[in-house]
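Appendix C: a fully annotated inverse folding record. The material below is reproduced so that readers can follow the format used throughout the book. The structure is listed first as tokens, followed by the designed sequence.
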């Protein structure tokens, strides 16, 4: 990054069910990171309800932003920019974050920087570990499952993606089937800790198939069928099925990542880093398996700390810092930016 290390950015994230704001410096210091999770609001429905999420963001965004500035001990006038998630995500929530950031930017006379949420996840390892370009990225979240070659800010080449469900979505749906609670990913991981992954045989999707694409809907269906066959399951059996599911997903992620490493390493210098990001990167079994794969292939492995895997404002502030120079130099009219519910990272797709 070419800007002075004391440059300060506020980042706002509202694309799903976390209302979050953070203050970060270009010198990779996180001065504050406030995350309000709407879990309680959505629990009764077993999933995120977009209308409820938008209202909850609206109610909280002012207080959360104030708290982020106060925690950091920073005034609006000290900021060099204000970044907010501009998409992809639930449109109501994205609008709340974008409008808030635009208003604050206008009032304080600093640039507003719309950030692609996926790019926030994709660049987090540069904030947390100072990882240099290029690197191979496995992005695993509630809405996405992609393998990307990251050659620079804004230079992302998709090597593989899911043909149906995102991996976090598969965790959430399977947790619901197994009645493990909400949010599903962490609940399933907890249940799997007490389970025997060998008790139930489940297919590992795409294993050994050419390419780097993913598919998880068949696995979810296999869990459903198994439940139909078994009837009511006791707690141990549900833990065993959760462990079998997690094991099948992990093997699939490892297999697909191994293919991507071949493609990625073929036209880049050896020993480039392998980075995992997104909410599912919080899963310890998956992290351990990917770390082992990277070591086996002579790549360094980086996974953000758990709190920066799931949605947060720090990753948005950081991506904003990475874009600050180009926004200023190109004199972009960012105040005219319209929220983008769909916004692929790789412009070629
Ligand atoms: O990145 P994120 O916070 O939001 C999106 O951008 O989607 O990811 C949320 C997803 C959810 O599907 C959640 O169940 C999953 O990440 N997740 C996990 C774990 N923690 C969060 N999945 C598996 N194991 C976990 N420990
Ligand atoms: Zn996310």
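Designed amino acids, in order:
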């Amino acid at each position: 990054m070419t800007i002075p290390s004391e440059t300060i950015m506020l980042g706002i994230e509202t694309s799903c069910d976390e209302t979050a704001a953070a203050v970060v410096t270009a010198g990779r210091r996180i001065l504050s990171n406030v995350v309000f999770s709407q879990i309680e609001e959505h629990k009764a429905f077993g999933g995120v309800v977009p209308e409820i999420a938008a209202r909850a963001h609206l109610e909280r965004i002012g207080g959360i932003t104030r708290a982020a500035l106060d925690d950091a001990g920073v005034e609006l006038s000290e900021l060099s920019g204000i970044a907010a998630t501009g998409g992809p995500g639930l449109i109501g929530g994205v609008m709340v974050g974008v409008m808030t950031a635009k208003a604050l930017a206008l009032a304080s006379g600093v640039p507003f920087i719309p950030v692609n949420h996926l790019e926030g996840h994709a660049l987090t390892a540069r904030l947390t570990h100072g990882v240099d370009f290029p690197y191979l990225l496995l992005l695993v979240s509630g809405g996405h499952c992609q393998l990307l070659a990251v050659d620079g800010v804004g230079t992302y080449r998709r090597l593989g993606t899911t043909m149906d469900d995102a991996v976090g979505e598969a965790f959430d749906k399977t947790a619901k089937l197994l009645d493990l609670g909400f949010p599903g990913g962490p609940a399933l991981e907890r249940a799997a800790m007490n389970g025997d992954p060998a008790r139930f045989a489940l297919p590992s999707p795409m294993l050994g198939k050419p390419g780097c694409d993913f598919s998880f809907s068949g696995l979810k269906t296999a869990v459903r069928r198994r439940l139909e066959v078994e009837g009511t399951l006791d707690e141990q059996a549900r833990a065993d099925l959760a462990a079998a599911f997690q094991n099948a997903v992990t093997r699939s992620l490892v297999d697909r990542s191994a293919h991507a490493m071949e493609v990625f390493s073929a036209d880049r210098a050896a020993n480039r880093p392998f980075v995992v990001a997104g909410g599912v990167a919080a899963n310890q079994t998956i992290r351990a398996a990917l770390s082992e794969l990277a070591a086996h292939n002579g790549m360094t492995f980086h996974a953000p700390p758990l709190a920066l895997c799931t949605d947060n404002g720090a990753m948005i502030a950081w991506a904003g810092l990475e874009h600050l120079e180009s926004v200023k130099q190109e004199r972009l009219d960012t105040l005219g930016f319209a929220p983008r519910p769909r916004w692929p990272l790789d412009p070629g797709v």
